[in-house]
């Protein structure tokens, strides 16, 4: 298996929250992501995205030892879990996670009543329109992995196993039901895809 090169003691700004924001925090998470090259020669984030395709990748790949934020290369982003990356508007990578991309596009096809599975560019176009746009949450039967917030964006709750869980970079904690009115963080097309059978990987409880 490959490994990531050690970072400096100060965390890099390359962790992503469910809103798609890139922050600095020590926790790494289950998955890596890619939006193109977002950093400068000093490994400082200077743009939010550099490509239409926002993908979720495996953090390790056989035979590759990666130095984070190499000049001129894509910026390695990190997510707590796949539910977080989906909320942020990323999709499974078709190259390093082909089986998950296949499952995602077949569920997307069912959810959107398409004759054929969607092409990569078609999915990316829809996600580009929807990511970052919070819509009112009105569903009384949420799907596992769905994330919501309140009007003040004071925190994120994730639905799993019939309960709400409080999201953090360190993991999930049991939480009281969120107070409304609520906003849906996970893009509508992704929620429809999960309802059609795509099971997102969800991280463990904090601690």
From TrEMBL:
Source organism of the structure: Sphingomonas colocasiae
Domain of life assignment: Bacteria
Protein name: Metal-binding protein
